Amino acid sequence: MALRELVTGLAKAELHLHLEGTLEPELAFALAARNGVSLPYAGVAALRRAYDFADLQSFLDLYYACMAVLRTAEDFRDLAAAYLDRARADGVVRAEVFFDPQEHTARGVPLAEVVAGLSRAAQESVAAGGPQVAFIACAVRHRGPAEALAMVESLEPHVGTVVGLGLDSTERGHPPRDYARAFDAARGLGLRTVAHAGEEGPPAYVWEALDVLGVERVDHGVRCVEDAALVRRLAADGTPLTVCPLSNVRLRVVDDLRDHPLPRLLDAGVRVTLNSDDPAYFGGYVADNYVACAEAFGWSEADLTALARASLDSVLR
Ligand code: HPA
Ligand SMILES: [Zn+2]
Asked: Which of 171, 199, 200, 208 does the annotation list as catalytic?
């Protein structure tokens, strides 16, 4: 069987996916026209040409700029529905989807409007036999701890549709420990917790995500390979890492996919899952990540099956 058919035929969960990172240029311009918003790019081709990132921050600047086109519940519904269609074709049966509430409320879009669109897309997906969906609201580090806490408090009416709190955006200079109060408040609401750590930030940030924030999964986490004790801790606890290989190449966390620490993490017994992060921007959806890794690392059908299984075993339930 061809590699891609093998991969798409494996039932899998996608656990590290930013909804706003699924905004393809065509949809961005369609929504810009619908809402009378202008984008600082001449058109689809010019926007795609700008996807040449030096690091996380250079990506985030463009990513936040493109979010300006998202204004109504219908926009969020359309964006989520387009992703869920693609995820279904990739064999995704469960998607745990990040979104950044603060980046929308800061532009005057009420949280209830965002959640209404997400909730509709999730219900339609299940009704149509597509992936089951849960949403994880992320606090954006660049807006600081006080705003993060206020955002968590604003989630209260939406608990249920929103099942978890995450932490994303600019990592360097924003240690997880700064967000301890927001994470405690989230647990007080019955939310589950995950955090980005060890993408660009040091292994110390992964330790803090575990020991100070008490997260159940670490998003990225790949810089743990620099600390043998941390790798042993992750393996012993069975803490999942939601790894995003094509993202790590595009944001220059690694120079080449073949240099990626994934094989070392698997050899060390760390529970690794494969995910797409921001697929519209990083050149591939989740199946593309499986295929690229299989080619780079010579993975067998058994290896790929084990990775899909690990993703299903790592969902929040
Ligand atoms: O890879 C990422 N890292 C941090 N924040 C993000 N927001 C979207 N993608 C990312
Ligand atoms: Zn991410």
From this structure: 199
- Calculate how far, in angstroms, residue 168's C-alpha sits from the geometric centre of ligand 1: 6
234-276 pLDDT per residue, tens = 999 999 999 999 999 999 999 999 999 999 999 999 999 999 9
The ipTM of this complex is: 0.96
Q: Is 295 one of the catalytic residues?
A: no
Distance 103 CA to ligand 2 centre (A): 15
CATH superfamily, domain 3-313, is: Metal-dependent hydrolases (3.20.20.140)
Give residue 296 CA to ligand 1 midpoint distance, Å: 24
The residue nearest atom 5 of ligand 1, judged by CA position, is 169
Which residue matches tokens 């007080």?
A: 188
What does the block give as tokens for 36? 């009378």
The binding site comprises 16, 18, 196, 277-278
| Whether pTM exceeds 0.80 | yes
Tell me whether residue 202 is exposed, middle or buried, using C-beta atoms within 10 angstroms of its C-beta: 0 to 12, 13 to 18, 19 or more. Answer: middle
Say yes or no to pLDDT of 134 above 90: yes
